[in-house]
Amino acid sequence: MLCVEDMDTTPRVLDGGLAYTVERIGNIKIDADPLWTARLLHTDPDYIISAHKSFLQAGASVILTASYQASVPGFREHLRITENEAIDLIKRSTSLARKACSDVLSQDPGNPKVLVAGSVGPYGACCHDGSEYTGKYVEYLTVQELQDWHLPRIQALVESGVDILGVETIPAQKEAEAVIGLLQTEFPNTKAYLTYSCKDGCHTCHGETFANAILPAIQSECFIGVGMNCTAPGHVTSLLRSIQHQPIKKAVIAKPNSGEQYEAGKGWYGKEKCAEVQTFVPDWLSLGATWIGGCCQVYPADIAQIRKEMSRLKTM
Predict the structure, then answer these.
(1) Nearest residue to 279 (alpha-carbon basis) of 245, 256, 250, 252
(2) Residue (of 191, 168, 214) closest to 115 by Cα position
(3) Regarding predicted confidence, which is higher, 22 or 267?
(4) What pLDDT, on a 0 to 100 scale, did the predictor assign at position 2?
(5) How far is Cα 295 from Cα 151, in angstroms, rounded to an integer?
(6) 46 lies in a domain?
């Protein structure tokens, strides 16, 4: 695990939407797959490496592993493999990210140090039923059940040598607190960041007030950053405004989607009504964001523009 002393004070560009970048590179569709990008860890790992490299070449200095929708139960059910084989696949997500970093660094030794963040997606993502954007499952799962489910993937990612964990797209405070408690108890030397998915400019997707929901991570020594991801850019601005009263001595993370709408069976639509993500960067920086990237429908070209805007404003 990388020493992350003072990491929270360093402005960084994060990567964008890995899944949809992989779709473009491989000319494939993964939306209907219950394993989503995680299946490619088993079938087409080169696509994942290529996607990582495209974000690195665009200027990202933090990349997330392709483990967002990876889980031991999911791999066992949909790939018909053993528990040990499933754990090895999760670890492979780190080795693929490391390979991409090595390849890019060999071409440009002047590149800054890149952090590999082990993606820890929500329980709902692996249900593949849309509940990752409602968090309703926390109403019938206990904290212990959530921790038991998250433990194998987190342990595999930690053992694989990720620099930090990216606990991302968490829709509900209860699940966030379950993961925070798990790290503090089982992995106290592991560093992580937490990003919620939010339904508006004030609330998580499950309905908790964002400003309150981030407090457990702010108070935890395991967490070096807090923020939101896969949230419309306009909501990100309001969410950042909602935490101006809090003295956050950690990275403040803004990793929005493109602002498009998503509908099952139809996919993403409404791009023509969306402002380019980089146009929001000045406001986000003025509101305290330090780590900025993208999520669904945010591609390497968008990340390059975000980096350009951050450099123009002399934050890097």
Answers:
(1) 256
(2) 191
(3) 22
(4) 40
(5) 24
(6) yes
